[in-house]
Amino acid sequence: MKFIFFMCILLFITPINLFAQNLDSITTETPKVKATPLDVSMKSKKDSVTFTNLKKKFSKNKILREIHHALFKDVYNTNNQGQEIVKIEDDPFTEYEGRVIRKIYVKRLRVFGESIADTTRIAEGFEKFLSSLHANTQESVIRKSFLLFNVGDIVDADRLRDNERLMRQSAILHDARILVLPDPEYPNLVDLLVLTQDIWSFIVDGEANGLQNYSIRVRQVNFRGLGHSWSNTFFMNTREKPALEYASTYTIPYIGRTFVTGQAELELKRTSSHYAFRLFRPFLTPEMKLAGGFVVSKDENERTQFRAYDGTTYRLNDSTNFFFPIKKDFIDFWLARAFKINFLNKGKDSRSRFVVGLRFSDIRFDKRPEVTADTNQLFRNHRDYLIGIGFSNRKYKRDILIYGFGLTEDVPYGYLATFVTGAENSDAFGHRWYAGIKLAKGEYIGKAGYLYGLINVGGYSNGTTGMSIESNYFSTLHAFRRRTQIRHFVNLRYAFGTQRYTGEFINVNRENGILDVNSDKLWGTKKMGLGYQIVFFSKLNFVGFRIAPFFQTDFAFINPKNEFLFKQTPYTSIGIGIRLRNENLTFNTFQIKFSYFPNLPNIQVLNASFNDTYNLRLKDFDISAPEIVPFR
């Protein structure tokens, strides 16, 4: 449904920033550069024969040539020889360390038709027209809010790598790259060329459950090229009064060069409301010494549902759910300071950090059900005072075709170890102490791939505890029948808790265990899930959408407390499908999937779906706010 909405908007609606700026943003002083230096796999003689012959046949006729150019395009990760890039140069800056930055150029590529991987590619025809409907991020915004260096600075390889990653992880840029341009006449000076490519910023999508119940969301993730994001969602249900509901979020990322992000949220629904304002600044790079955040929010819901000890929703009778009102105020503040610890460094490595953080949070309910030490503890009024210390070392390797479909992906590797302690004052438990530890490590293991592991455990002095173990693995990229690259993915999840609160449960729905499943029966207090997936990244790129077939299977165990976890056979899911993704667009990857669920409760055995995928990201090793171990 969202895909249909988007295609209609793309073809027939012009955004409010139509022709707002000239996309040929590079000045006449910008030097010409060759294709970005990248390691590529050599094409075999038979590679892409089908598409090459098709292109030759279409090129004989002007109209057919335009149709072919509109429908079939090179994949994002191809160079100017048409070769597919499967490995990115990981350290292009070290040889220039110590030189002085003489000039900084910024070149903003068109949204469609041009490529960071091949700077010689030119947008033509329909691509050029579509790009003209988008206002590129203003050059002043890139220079003031996204660059960590100035003219006259000394080249620092780590800082340049971090700066590339910082730009790529933003919500407004599809990809970014920094090129060093040496001058043979002045060996101590270099120029820097900053290449950026926006994502398409204006999207309208929606969902529908019949003609009387539907929603429409309008998003502008780069308002007039300023980098601001504004999302507005309208919910309509003509069977209810009032029929219209509304939600909005406005985000200002990286205010000036403070790298502080501001965000405001508003939700106005029939029986609930939500207001929130937050400021936050994480440790975006190891060079940052200070991080922190502040959140204030107010929530009210007249029809809150609650789960009983068996995980099912409380009911007044067989057909009527039980509801109660809540009204909650929330304030949260944290501050952290990072220190270099050179004695843990190896050679020139200076990315190890020791971090000290403080946190205060206050949750106050004006409306709620009755709360005691044994009942409804989730709705207790409480204040938390936490202090955390930790060690962290994080680096990044540039890779491709992991969770993205051709853009540059920054894979974090390193380790972290944190210890958090503090106290809680509440009207349910009085005063109690808390302590928790978190250990994580991720590494490329030779040519076998990448492996990540996490253990997170914590508990209160009255016996309430939580523990989670997580491991993720993906293989190296392998060639499959010349025109396709494949990766294998494996993930493991384990979690449990003791003396948890009434109505508090973990589940194995969706990203918590079994993808694309949401059952009211898959709840408990301990779980284990194992998933495997193989993805085929084909070279086929249709109307800018890259196609990736996949096979997936998930196994999950979950039980209520005091029961053996492996007492029953695991819940199982087997699925095949294809994913479609245009990296230049803001909405998630779409997939068409056919699934077989042999033993899931309240779920049809065979299921076909067309929906979004989950926005998967690699776990990082940054230390931020001291936190209680989440029970999920």
Beta strands, count: 27
Cα(first) to Cα(last) distance is: 30 Å
Count helical runs.
6
Largest sheet: 22 strands, antiparallel
Helix-and-strand structural type: mainly beta
Name the overall outline.
globular
Helical content stands at under 10%
Query: pLDDT below 50 for ≥5 consecutive residues: which ranges?
Result: 1-29, 34-52, 79-83
Radius of gyration: 26 Å
Strand content: over 45%
**How much is the average pLDDT?**
80
Keywords: Signal
Signal peptide: 1-20
Structure write-up:
This protein is mainly beta and 632 residues long. Helices cover 9% and strands 46% of the residues. It contains six helices and 27 strands. The strands form three sheets. It has a 22-stranded antiparallel beta sheet that branches. It has a three-stranded mixed beta sheet with strand order 1-3-2, covered by helices on one side. A hairpin with an 8-residue loop joins strand 5 and strand 6. The longest helix has 12 residues. The chain is globular and about 80 Å long. The N terminus is likely disordered. Keywords: Signal.
